[in-house]
UniProtKB/TrEMBL annotation:
Enzyme Commission number, as recorded: 3.4.17.11
Keywords for this protein: Carboxypeptidase, Hydrolase, Metal-binding, Protease, Signal, Zinc
Keyword Protease: yes
Broad class of enzyme this protein falls into: hydrolase
Parts forming coiled coils: none
InterPro entries: ArgE/DapE_CS, Bact_exopeptidase_dim_dom, Peptidase_M20, Peptidase_M20_dimer, Peptidase_M20A
Ranges for domain Peptidase M20 dimerisation: 210-328
Any one Pfam family match given in the protein's UniProt record, by short name: M20_dimer
Protein name: Glutamate carboxypeptidase
Cofactor: Zn(2+)
Domain of life: Bacteria
Signal peptide (from-to): 1-18
Keyword hit for Zinc: yes
Length: 431
């Protein structure tokens, strides 16, 4: 019966796969396909366990599910507690081998907390919906499916692999230096890094992610002299906090634009008085039309493609802030939490070329570079300065971070096949 199944699966492979991939790689292809239902069931169990970033027991429970999958494959699995950052922790797994170290990156948490009504996995044909089904539980299942295929083919035995699955990717703990110290250390030890966030797909074409923009938060507070509105603009009262705020934000809009840069304003308020809450989400303000505003507060984000661009734009923002209207002041503060950019490098492009060699040999479509302005930030940004990195190796889907998040379950097959062969070749030094 097993021989018949293997023959049928081999027959189902693309002609290019049978012609150009070696027997071990054909076994990987067949194993992923034959275990497809198993991995869908695993994905369902993971999705049905809520693991919002602030649901610490839920994040740990998903980590336990992954541990159960990895330990039988020969991985040494540990849990790094992150109580000091206010988060559950991270799962780190190591498979020592003689090959070059390949770091696999994903995350256990989702944006959907326990009180969100969107909680269950549902399947209709090859489409499944559920909280975190793509971001990033689908990516974690791709990792597991690829490793199981490698074990079946014998390529896992000598592979040198480290897995870091963070428990707070969607809402990173503080301080960041502690929250990401283990991931950064793993990146410095690795020869290659592969990140398993959602696959980029447009017009039914798969794309490779060689770059991601950063994500940083900033808070702008402006102040001015307050008094009767009849004196606004005069030498005594000046322009007030709201006009100073408007000047600065419009200066950002007019003076800073360039490719791969955005700086959104998410919340704003001004009056006498005005204040923002400790979480930076809610602004309260009150005032009267005949009183010059004393305070204004705005909070937004900054996204850049390279460290150089990030430093230059921050300096440009500060220069605009410093050109005060009469009798006003302003302070721009960048938050400590945030994600550094994953800049496009020749090393990253070389990794995509290696993936496209896999695609050619397996009879899968080649993947062009995806526009980084269309991608969000990810944990890969924390390692990209130290190691060649390729992102977006998870499943294809849509509506991430929203009710109705969905994935194409068929993509789980091709992504796991791609990953199994790529990881094997990278670690074992094959072309």
């Amino acid at each position: 019966m097993r021989l018949v199944l293997a023959a049928l699966l081999l027959f189902a492979l693309p002609t290019a796969a049978a012609a150009q991939s070696n027997p071990a790689e054909q076994t990987m292809m067949q194993t992923v396909q034959s275990e497809h239902d198993r991995h869908i069931a695993l994905l369902e169990r993971m999705v049905n366990q809520n693991s919002g970033s602030l649901n610490l027991p839920g994040v740990r429970a998903v980590g336990d599910m992954v541990r159960t999958e990895l330990e039988p494959l020969g991985f040494e699995v540990s849990w790094v507690d992150m109580a000091e950052t206010g988060r559950a922790g991270h799962l780190i797994a190591r498979h020592p081998g003689s090959g070059r170290n390949v770091l696999l990156i994903g995350h256990l948490d989702t944006v959907f907390e326990a009180d969100n009504p969107f909680q269950r996995f549902e399947r209709t044909g090859s489409r499944a919906t559920g909280p975190g089904v793509g971001d990033d539980k689908g990516g974690v299942v791709v990792i597991i499916a690829a490793l199981r295929a490698m074990q079946a083919a014998g390529t896992l035995q000598d592979a040198n692999i480290t897995i870091v699955l963070t428990g707070d990717e969607e809402r990173i703990g503080a301080p960041v230096a502690i929250a990401r110290q283990d991931l950064i250390a793993a990146g410095r030890e690795a020869a290659f890094a592969l990140e398993f966030e959602n696959l980029a797909v447009e017009d039914e074409n798969d794309f490779g992610t060689i770059a991601r923009r950063s994500s940083a938060n900033w808070t702008l507070t402006t102040t001015g002299r307050t008094g009767h509105s009849s004196g606004v603009f005069n030498d005594n009262l000046g322009y007030g906090a709201i006009y100073e705020m408007a000047r600065i934000l419009d200066g950002f809009r007019r003076e800073l634009p360039e490719p791969n840069l955005t700086y959104n304003v998410g919340v704003i308020g001004g009056g006498t008085p005005a204040a923002i809450d400790a979480e930076g989400f809610s602004v309260t303000a009150s005032g009267k039309t005949n009183i010059v505003a004393s305070t204004a507060v705005a909070r937004g984000d900054l996204r850049t493609l390279t460290a150089e661009q990030d430093a230059r734009i921050r300096a440009g923002m500060q220069a605009i802030v410093d050109a005060h209207l009469p009798r006003t002041d302003a302070e721009l503060v960048f938050g400590e939490s945030g994600y550094p950019p994953m800049a496009p490098t020749e090393g990253n492009r070389a990794l995509l070329a290696r993936l496209n060699a896999v695609n050619r040999d397996l009879g899968l479509p080649e993947m062009a570079e995806y526009d980084p302005a269309r991608r969000g930030a990810a944990d890969s940004g924390f390692v990209a300065a130290d190691v060649d990195t390729l992102g977006g190796l998870g499943v294809a889907g849509g509506n991430a971070h929203a009710d109705g998040e969905w994935v194409d379950l068929d993509s789980l097959v091709r992504q796991s096949q791609r990953a199994a062969v790529l990881i094997s070749r990278l670690s074992l030094g094959q072309p």
